[in-house]
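dumping this here before i forget
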Amino acid sequence: MCNSNEFNCGCCPPAQVFQEKICGNYSGGSVNNPIWSAPAGTYLAGVFQVFNSANSTATPGVRINGQDRIPPLPGQTMSYTVDNPTSLEILGAEGASGTYCIILYRRVLT
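structure:
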């Protein structure tokens, strides 16, 4: 049997978890801003952080995997953790601006 104490035939290579980080800026407007997307099943999990600048006069909408999330108020950061992430959208709000960071986890066979 593979990976048992008696045999290690190499047929079951250990998987490693690979981390990717994507960061950037956004500014509000009248259109939605698709920030990131990936095919279903590509990533195990993701952490999405959205910061709304203290100078913002509005609150942007945040949509992850097609679901609306509680948005950050001016001067705040909201962090969202999801399994099997497929998309992040920051929905336009005139007067809102800030930054986002996405940390993605993917299983890679070695």
